[in-house]
Design a protein that fits this description.
72% of the residues lie in helices and 0% in strands. By secondary structure, it is an all-alpha fold. Helix 2 packs antiparallel against helix 3. The N and C termini lie far apart (65 Å).
Length: 203
């Protein structure tokens, strides 16, 4: 597992899968869930670009084996990370909203943070707001990083009201601020065009 994890961190997906396929058999060992998860992660971190569909094949294999090797939330988070890196927001959201529930698993803060990263990368502020609402309704406690990703998407959408609202939630929940998050909210305020409410107030 340590060797496959090292390959995953370095984005050496082929090396990680080679260890899974060859080294364990040579040593007469059975790979466990941690090993399989490392290979999924390796394909999501693959260089020069993520190959999440390869990770999906590993998850399908884990499902066939079942038992203690059956995929868990960490497995799907690794897969979601690959789709986020590939800027495939729809596939990322499908992992969260369809594949996890189908496996009787619940998304955690990593799941939502990674999905929000996909929304930020694709400038989809609407989906970002929906994810924040879903997480809060599911009592998943988002951290500063998750809110920062959402604020990034809102900033790109010039939605200054919503960006400032999320920034205030960070303060209300005693979460640590970071300069990037504040700067993103300020950028939304600087770039935001007057919306209908502003026009009505001005009239």
């Amino acid at each position: 597992a340590a060797a496959t994890a090292a390959c995953a961190r370095g984005g050496n997906a082929e090396g990680a899968e080679a260890i899974l396929r060859n080294e364990f058999a040579r040593c007469g060992l059975e790979p466990d869930r941690i090993t399989y998860n490392s290979v999924v992660s390796a394909w999501s971190r693959a260089k020069p670009e993520a190959q999440p569909e390869k990770g999906r094949e590993i998850i399908a294999e884990m499902q066939r084996i079942g038992g203690d090797v059956a995929p868990d939330t960490v497995s799907y988070n690794a897969l979601l990370h690959g789709f986020s890196r590939a800027h495939d927001k729809e596939a990322a959201l499908n992992v969260l909203r369809t594949e996890l529930p189908a496996a009787n698993l619940r998304p955690d803060v990593v799941t939502y943070t990674t999905a929000l990263d996909a929304c930020n990368a694709t400038q989809d502020w609407r989906s970002a707001l929906e994810l924040v609402r879903e997480a809060e309704e599911s009592r998943v406690e988002l951290g500063t990083l998750a809110y920062s990703k959402a604020i990034g998407a809102l900033s790109q959408g010039r939605k200054w009201r919503e960006a400032c609202e999320l920034l205030s939630r960070i303060s209300k929940r005693d979460l640590p601020h970071n300069p990037r998050t504040v700067n993103l909210a300020l950028a939304a305020c600087a770039d935001g065009a007057p919306d209908e409410d502003d026009a009505a107030e001005a009239a």
